[in-house]
Amino acid sequence: MTTLKSILLAGAIAMLPLGAQAYAAPEEAPVAEAVIADEAQTETDSEASAEASKAKMQREMDEAVALIEKMFDTNSLPPIEPARLALGQKTMSALIPAGSLEKMIDNLYGKMFKTIMGEMGGQSDLMISINTGVDNEKISALDEATKVKIADMFDPHRKEREEQITKVIKPLISEALADMETPMRDGMAKAYARKFTAAQLTDLNSFLATPTGSLYAGEWMALQADPEVMVAVMRALPPLVTKFIDRAPTIEKDMKELPKEKQLSDMSDKELSKLAKLMKVDVKVLKEQRDMWKTDAVEATDDAAMATEADAADASSTDDYAADAAAEAADAAAIAAEGEAMDPAYDRSNWSAADLKRVEDLETAYENASIAAQEAAEEAAANARKKLPD
Predict the structure, then answer these.
(1) What is the per-residue pLDDT for 68?
(2) In a designed cystine with 32, which of 14, 24, 93, 355 is the match (CB 3.0 to 4.6 A)?
(3) Domain residues for 245?
(4) Does residue 76 form part of some domain?
(5) Could you give the number of structural domains in the chain?
(6) Does residue 281 fall inside a structural domain?
(7) pLDDT tens across 169-195, in order?
(8) How far is the C-alpha of 177 from the C-alpha of 173, rounded, in Å?
(9) How many angstroms separate the CA atoms of 316 and 281, rounded?
(10) Do 234 and 185 sit in the same domain of this protein?
């Protein structure tokens, strides 16, 4: 018995194979029952895990939506005249007819999705290199027909697999885009009603009712993903990135010259009392947090100083120190990851805001101290090299 479940999480589809085929003779019934029981338990565990993942993602999406609603607050906007809104709705009915979003995505879907499927399907130079261990340069010299034959040797049914995935994904995308059209149309209608006067909207609607206007209305959204537009935008990106890289030193200098933000450990008792009143919390809570910050900062500074002294005394140990530090950090990360995977209490989305801030602040302090220690070690080693004979 084979079960295939498709889970759609924020536009991503995960195919989870659950269970296996079991055939047994009548006298092997107890074994068959055990297999079926194991399958049932596995499927239950997988469903529970999927539900937990969906719930977590839903919380994250709710937080993101709340943030966007806060950034783009519409509650303070004045009401829209009903007649003007009706004109805006008429405009959007023409500009965003049913299926227009899907038409726009199809400009990308037919090309980008097929390209991605080709990369994943084993036909790309990268996948052939991974599967065979042969260098990319040798693979790139092969013609496409040869690459297809190589990919087919590893997965003779890849074309059927690609077609099946496309068959599953395409309707889901169409359904999701159809669901988006109505709220998008409503939001655009309100935006147009606020931006344009009733007379301007009437002019727009008159134009959209003409043959040229009707053609424009049916194509304007799809043209946003036209190959000419996509290529032009992509070609414009490298110069933009280069500008940021070229100006990075100036930006970094300007940022360093700005006063640093205050930490809780920098605040006086008077400032803490004021902060406590604003937050409506007991000032003792803030004082405990501040004192803990100060203690951690002192310990981190002491650790950095000790590391600097040790490396200055023996410059040859710099590489070992860095390797040990990296190994310890990796071990700590592995332990933390293992604990988080096994115990949902380590899932930060389940922590309180205060606990989360405390952990993140301590992590930042630790990271800063580690960087300072490493930089001091490198400087000590450089100074030692100047004294050592060549």
Answers:
(1) 85
(2) 24
(3) 227-258
(4) no
(5) 4
(6) yes
(7) 778 878 888 888 899 999 999 999 999
(8) 6
(9) 52
(10) no
